[in-house]
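REQUEST
  id: r-88c1
  op: predict_structure
  target: WtsE
  payload:
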Amino acid sequence: MFKAPPALPNELVDAIISYVADKETLRNCALVHRDLLPASRHALLGCVFLTAPAAWDSFVGGVIHSEEMRPWLASIQRLSFIDPLVHTHYTDDKCTPVGPISAWRAQYIVPILASRLPNLPSLFLCVDWARCQPHPTTFGSFSLFTSLRQLQLSDCSFPSFCTFRRLLVSLPALKNLDCQGVHWPYAPQPYIVALPSSRPALESFGVCFSCRSCTFALLEWLIHTPTSSTLIAIEISPNFPEVQPNHPIIDPTKNLDYYAKIFAPGIRKAHLKSDIEESPCFIDLSHFAALEWLHIDIGSIDWSRTADMLQALPSRLETLHIQVREDGATHDNDLIMEEKDQFKAMKLDGLNLLDHALSRDNFKDLSYLSICIWGYEDALSPLREGTIKSIQQKLPTSYKRKMLHIQLDFQYLTPHSSFSKCSESMEPFA
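RESPONSE
  id: r-88c1
  status: 200
  body:
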């Protein structure tokens, strides 16, 4: 006689399913046995990605308007809505549009979701409201996201800075804000950005604007909010194009150093990022007295400026990541450098200046130094050993410190873009 295996405790089954990442497997789990249905649905709806018309229609019809599925809306921890018109992908060496979400879907995304997801903690939006006229209740509906702690906005065009400001003020729980390419069509009046506000009180803030005027308008307003004293993590990517700004800057005398000085005292984690090799982000670190973690994107010839920037840092840094960005000339040659008849994966002239900077007393607590290089796998891998040896020679003081873990990371490029698809973490120097 067949004897059924003993049933696993429900708590153990739920824990196992929570570790399943594949969506198809989770859907199959829901079909196998009714006891697996609750945990499977909870895991399936943990992160929702709406990146195509069919996905949006399926979610609205099969979840939001379904009596059976509606209770599972509380399981959503992160929701992403991306209008693919902004993005493209590569197929057979050709750049192919993904296909836009229709205007009416983008118009109603916020009004439809806000009232049904009051407990949503994380939201990612990529919507061009300049292309699709937003519904009149769109920006007022953000106030219904009463539990939203993390908001990421990418390539979003707002009717005005005042609209964007009201959106942020309306979110009572907002702690993490990431703005990538956010824009409005004209500069706000100076008195608008000087208005004090009790919100937001951000702990983490990332900014990568294509418009210099928009960037400084937001920074100017944030220094009049609690964010000026609550911020502990910041990511700055000043990738301004080499063209005139879309509209005038409110106060041309203020630069990134001016705002960095205001936010700096409480910052413990900073990422100075750049997607443009010709425009690395160098700011004055002399006021970052609490900084513990620092990630710097530099060009292949910026060791001297990097060392000068670190010389000014007063805090006791624990972790330092340096990412060497590619430039146009080296990109075509797989980032291979030739120095003194030896091939390296990056240019090392001037790296010894970094060793001098890291020898200061406030770097005694530095326990991790990572140098990341971009390139193609078949070109970089053979250069690993020679590059490591050269870095050891350039950083003799740092290398001899037993407590300092120095690591070389390779970020492999795909043939079609400069975005990393995979990475290989090399063993620490032996």
